[in-house]
Amino acid sequence: MIPINVPQIGEEEIAAVVKVMKSGIITHGLGAGPMVTKFEKAFAKFMNARHAIAVNTGTSALHLSIAGAGIKRGHEVILPSFTFVATAEVIAMIGAKPVFVDIDPETYNVSPRIIEKAITKKTKAIMPVDLYGLPADMQPIREIADKHDLAIIEDAAQAHGASYKRKPPGVFADTACWSFYASKNMTTGEGGMITTNDDEIAEKLRFMRSHGEKEKYKSLMLGHNYHMPEIQAAIGLVQLKRLPKFIGKRRQNAKKLSARLSKAKKLQLPKEPKGYKHSWYLYTVRLKDAKGKRRDKIVEKLKQKGIGAEVYYVIPIHLMPYYRKFGKPRLKEAEKTARQVFSLPVHPGVTAKQIEFIGETVLHAIE
Ligand SMILES: Cc1ncc(COP(=O)(O)O)c(C=O)c1O
Prior knowledge:
The chain is α/β, with parallel strands linked by helices and about 375 residues long. It has helices at about 10-25, 35-45, 60-70, 85-95, 110-115, 140-150, 200-210, 230-260, 295-305, 330-340, 350-365, and strands spanning about 50-55, 75-80, 95-100, 125, 150-155, 165, 175-180, 190-195, 265-270, 275, 285, 340-345. The protein has a seven-stranded mixed sheet, with helices on both faces. The protein has a three-stranded antiparallel sheet with strand order 9-11-12. Strands 6-10 form a two-stranded antiparallel ribbon.
């Protein structure tokens, strides 16, 4: 099976882990040990941000960002319904209301126009998602946020290595949240990071990461234990160094696959609009005329041939059993997209020969 994504772990990551274990320092009481601090500095530099705050998961990064922005019960946060559930989860966790909006059928991301229509007096923040690794249209979203005095928490969990107007994700947001889950473009097994240019937010989030403490046993605010362990940070440092090569390989694979699939009239291929750089976390195609179970049958056929095709995401969040209580919007594009898309492997371990095989098998399967 050619899996949809595989962690790219080598000897350097293994050596980095052993080194930390031998050092005897495996975590830090306030969440920032020597390796974590080093990783935060390197990540901030890579992402053109003043600060980076390492945490234990991408979900924690989102949760801290929401809490740090002062969002609470009675507030509304606008987000796309077509994303991984964690984006919505953190809003519900804090007692606020997720306001699900539709997506653009070409980019699968929220558009500024859609966001502006959903703003009410209760809206406090916008959470754009850089879905599949393609950044959202952040500059006009920033303008809307400024006009209505809203915070932007960008879910960049899938976008390491992407860029928008030549800038890394996060530059137009108050905070950007990253995941280092095992499938991601760079991984620490589990792990997360927040980047921000705001000194005050950064300081607050550092305290909140560690029980609201600036000093031990003297909580200044409500916090959590969201520490990233030293071993994870050591892996992250190596992975960050390797990230440009990983992205290079993903780009090459995506380009070859698009060339191979270009004659398939039934497929909508993923786009990289001018001024955007895709991270190709997921190479996602749409079977344009797919109704009922047609898409699922094709994914099954591909699996039988050894291709780990997967569907991200089968159910838009507003239709998930738990989330229906937040209202029943009709989100036509998100619902249609969920029935028609599937993703194909382009990770750095996929060879040119395998890309050929994937392309050929997909063309055959859709006929
Ligand atoms: C879009 C999106 N948001 C949030 C997350 C949550 O990250 P984590 O799994 O590290 O908690 C993920 C990844 O799983 C994701 O893909």
